[in-house]
Design goal:
Blueprint (H helix, E strand, L loop, with lengths): L5 E2 L12 E6 L15 H4 L28 H15 L1 H22 L2 E5 L19 H4 L4 E6 L12 E6 L5 H10 L6 E5 L6 E2 L8 E5 L13 E6 L12 E2 L2
Parallel strand pairs: 2-3, 3-4, 4-5, 5-6, 6-9, 6-10, 8-9
Antiparallel strand pairs: 1-2, 7-8
Helix pairs in contact: 2-3
């Protein structure tokens, strides 16, 4: 199935359950497109080890002089989508709505329920983006479940019934970590990137209680997770070598 903007054959999003199908929107993270799509990525320590480098997005060919190229077709596609969003937002939003409508129709034919992740490699406040008829994408598709991870502590989406946000943990910066402790009260779950060993329980730094840990790599449907759990994600791409506090060594 082909889309203008979304990725349908992402290995993780295909690990679905409870009769769901999922698609994800990948843009160029941080400032790679010329606009910062991840405003807390630097302070949270995830800018250099972003999931953007995982899977095929991190495979770079060797040039004739023996050095690795700095881009590939995956990165180029993400950049083009990002520039379209920046330069021609109206066209981008029309394509996005058309893709969602197409996906919903596909799910209906297959007898599946649609789920959509808008921030695959970005952290955009989609609750503030206005689309058709002065409505958000969540209002235009009330029967579609949307979900994302975020590192922005000020986001407020509890009033949106079909949008689930999971807080993304980091110990890379003391100031940011204090914001995490405050923001955590607004979120049901927290996602933690672990280096290799995934523990059964995890106590966030600065807290007195430990949370039960579940394997977040088994599927991508975060809105089905039980409350007060740590979503364990194994480090991928450049994150495998990260030591700044974004990736946790259990």
């Amino acid at each position: 199935m082909n889309f203008n903007l979304f990725t349908f054959n992402n290995p993780k999003t295909q690990k679905t359950k409870d009769n769901y199908l999922s698609i994800v929107l990948h843009l160029s993270p941080a400032k790679m497109s010329g606009k910062n799509f991840c405003p807390f990525s630097k302070i949270a320590g995830c800018e250099d080890s972003c999931l953007n480098t995982a899977g095929r997005g991190g495979i770079f060919k060797k040039s004739l002089n023996g050095e690795y190229e700095k881009t590939n077709v995956i990165q180029q596609a993400r950049y083009r989508r990002s520039r379209l969003f920046i330069e021609q937002p109206d066209i981008f939003k029309k394509l996005l709505l058309a893709d969602i409508k197409k996906f919903v129709g596909y799910c209906y034919v297959k007898g599946k329920k649609p789920a959509i992740r808008l921030n695959g490699t970005s952290d955009i406040l989609w609750e503030n983006q206005i689309f058709k008829d002065n409505k958000t994408v969540f209002e235009l598709f009330p029967d579609v479940m949307f979900y994302d991870y975020t590192k922005i502590p000020s986001r407020k989406v509890k009033h949106i019934p079909n949008y689930k946000l999971v807080w993304s943990y980091s110990e890379a910066n003391p100031v940011y970590h204090r914001k995490f402790l405050q923001a955590m009260r607004k979120y049901d779950n927290v996602a933690v990137v672990f280096h290799s060993i995934i523990p059964k329980t995890f106590k966030p730094k600065g807290m007195s209680i430990s949370w039960k840990v579940i394997n977040g790599d088994e599927n991508d449907l975060r809105f089905l997770d039980k409350k007060d759990t740590v979503i364990a994600l194994e480090a991928k791409g450049k994150a495998k070598k990260e030591t700044n506090g974004f990736v946790i060594y259990a």
